Backbone:
């Protein structure tokens, strides 16, 4: 058992350390699919397990009680739950049960588990914190921080439905908070100081949650690897995600942290203009669209200051070498834009704005 653990903790530390200084190696170092032998040792896989709804099976299992289903996403089903302790101790959490279709093959599952271990210690104000990865009757689920808010996808939809756009300052603020979460994850080190070379790989509007207190949190760290690995291989492409791929992801090339910078650029573009840069149903289609010139945001929406438009376009350069070279650089540019000459956006201002846009949402009640 001890040797098995060791093997999965951090795949090939030396390679990861080298990878940090050599971007082209990052993908190989962290995403290398586990070998057949490694995959067969993953303790979570339970081929004989019956697919059941989580409500039936998990109630009171492992000290958790499901309160209600929150949403059904591309990767799994999300539930509001309580983590129970002694003397009526109860902590509100969210559970995400990973759809079995993504983890049916042992390699995808092994990839998922090894990546989950890499991201276990990510604790940052702009990242949804994962508490544990559990298994119950063959179902794999994540226990994480419950975020009382809404996804950026819903935020965007609410605006486009009423034919207006979020003020550019708030869009810059949301993106800047995500850069801070990314910066932290991209530079995160293991307990013994080795760079982990974590890349999110799935920065999309639905994975950015706006909490009603005005906090911005990036979710689903570590989930994308196994899934994008599968979809790029052509086995059931994840719809909704294709439009947020970086060129290197779309070409199944090695990716590093600059891929996340590109994807966040796509999210920022959508916030600023109300339009997706790419509207594709297949990877081939998105590859074609990536050859076209992107119209700068200020040409689509005249309310976008040219300075902000330029920042967005720099994140969207096709060649990773031409983009911001770190999330920190991207974040600094956004913060300079927001604060160098005025009292720019804050969490509190964003919270008040959310209150205006969603006046009927219960802010203080989660049940
Ligand atoms: N920690 C959380 N707390 C509260 N709600 C959450 C949490 N995580 C996710 N959700 C909600 O559940 C929804 C579904 O999440 P999920 O990650 O499964 O799918 P998605 O983000 O919509 O799509 P995908 O991740 O496949 O791109 C999210 O849009 C979000 O509104
Ligand atoms: Mg998600």
Residues:
């Amino acid at each position: 058992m001890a040797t098995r653990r060791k093997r999965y903790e951090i795949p090939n530390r030396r390679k990861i350390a080298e990878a940090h200084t050599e971007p082209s190696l990052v993908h190989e170092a962290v995403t290398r699919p586990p070998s057949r032998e490694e995959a067969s040792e993953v303790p979570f896989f339970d081929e004989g397990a019956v697919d059941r709804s989580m409500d039936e099976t998990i109630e009171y299992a492992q000290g958790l009680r499901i309160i209600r289903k929150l949403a059904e996403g591309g990767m799994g089903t999300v539930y509001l739950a309580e983590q129970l302790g002694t003397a009526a101790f109860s902590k509100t959490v969210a559970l995400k049960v990973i759809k079995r279709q993504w983890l049916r093959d042992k390699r995808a599952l092994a990839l998922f588990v090894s990546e989950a271990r890499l991201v276990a210690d990510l604790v940052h104000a702009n990242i949804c914190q994962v508490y544990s990865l559990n298994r119950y009757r063959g179902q794999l689920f994540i226990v994480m921080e419950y975020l009382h808010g809404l996804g950026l996808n819903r935020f965007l939809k609410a605006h486009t439905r009423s034919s207006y756009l979020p003020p550019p300052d708030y869009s810059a603020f949301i993106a800047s908070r995500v850069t801070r979460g990314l910066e932290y994850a991209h530079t995160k080190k293991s307990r013994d100081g080795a760079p982990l070379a974590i890349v999110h790989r799935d920065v999309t509007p639905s994975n950015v949650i706006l909490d009603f207190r005005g906090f911005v949190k990036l979710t689903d760290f570590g989930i994308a690897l196994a899934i994008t690995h599968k979809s790029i291989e052509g086995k059931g492409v994840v719809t909704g995600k294709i439009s947020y791929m970086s060129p290197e992801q779309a070409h199944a090339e090695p990716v590093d942290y600059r891929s996340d910078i590109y994807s966040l650029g796509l999210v920022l573009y959508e916030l600023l203009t109300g339009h997706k840069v790419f509207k594709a149903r297949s990877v081939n289609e998105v590859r074609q669209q990536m050859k076209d010139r992107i119209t700068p945001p200020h040409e689509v929406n005249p309310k976008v200051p040219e300075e902000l438009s330029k920042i967005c376009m720099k994140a969207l350069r096709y060649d990773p070498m031409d983009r911001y070279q770190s999330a920190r650089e991207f974040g600094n540019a956004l913060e300079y834009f927001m604060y160098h000459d005025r009292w720019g956006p804050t969490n509190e201002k964003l919270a008040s704005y959310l209150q205006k846009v969603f006046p009927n949402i219960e802010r203080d009640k989660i049940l």
Observations:
- The beta strands are 64-72, 76-84, 90-98, 130-136, 139-145, 149-151, 208-211, 216-218.
- Residues 73, 75, 206-207, 219-220 surround magnesium ion (ligand 2) (CB under 6 Å).
